[in-house]
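Now for one protein, fold included:
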Amino acid sequence: MQLATPDGVWLIDPLALPDLTPLAPVFAGHSPVVVVHAGDNDLAHLKRRYGFAFRSIFDTSIAARFLGGKSLGLDTLIETWLGLVLPPSRQRDDWSARPLTPAQIDYAAADVRHLFALKARLTAELSASGRLAWVEEECAALAAHIVPERVVDPDAYVGVKGARELPPQGLGILRELWALRESLARAADRPPFKILSEEILLAIARAAPRDTAALATLPGVTPRVLGRWGQGLVAAVERGLALSEADLPQLPHRPRPRIPGAVSRRVEALRKWRAGATERLGLEPGLLLPNRLITQIAEAAPRTIEQLAAVEGVRRWRADTFGGEIIAALGGS
């Protein structure tokens, strides 16, 4: 964990100091403002694992999006707004290995060292464009977001892109591989995608390698993957191949929901409005009005700005700034 103040940077090792709860008061008050970059995953982890509460957040990634930024990596933003170049990325390093190298320490510290200066530049630009209140509301929503406990979905493997094109035996192998990855992730206390990508799981399910030599020929199966999990992956393939026909997974049927004609017309009207507004403002469509909100607004069919503001997730800034335009667009549908 990297922490910074205007006076310095501290690196806290959660492997050496697994209890981080003494930090909770730092984040829970109105002051100080906690500056993060693309902090949704970090905040979710801290909320779920340590019970942290956050009150005042400023996310530089959110801020840059509201300024029309397309490349939102921290290194790009710091170079664009501050003219500084961060050390080379170490994201592919194994950060569970100890001790950290000097290059890793330098990279970790640089990740937070310039956030206050970046916040100041972005805040000034947002104030000049009249969008600072928009960002503040989005950041407040990020801070207040309640993170639900993870629910294990036994059919989650079906959501892998390409899974529905697998034959039944391949789907059975994918189910075994998915279960293996989940158990490895829990044991390592890491997100599953950092153990093995879905693309690798799908490639293994398609090829059904019976030994580690065949496994090693597949794209993405690096020597590290082979050394750590090769035997387990081959065993998962064997379990999938051993399934009887009766035990093979069946793809769950997901009927497409029927959308009433009036709702469909309102959806199209909102999309048309969004297309014009995003071009006019230079913002991403999904930032200005996400598809999720388009559907919710179309179903709610608000007739006033207050009714629009009451739709969950609309936020006050959308209703106040664009409410009249949105209501007018709905009125013509």
In short: The beta strands are 2-5, 8-11, 34-36, 57-59. The chain has a mean pLDDT of 94.
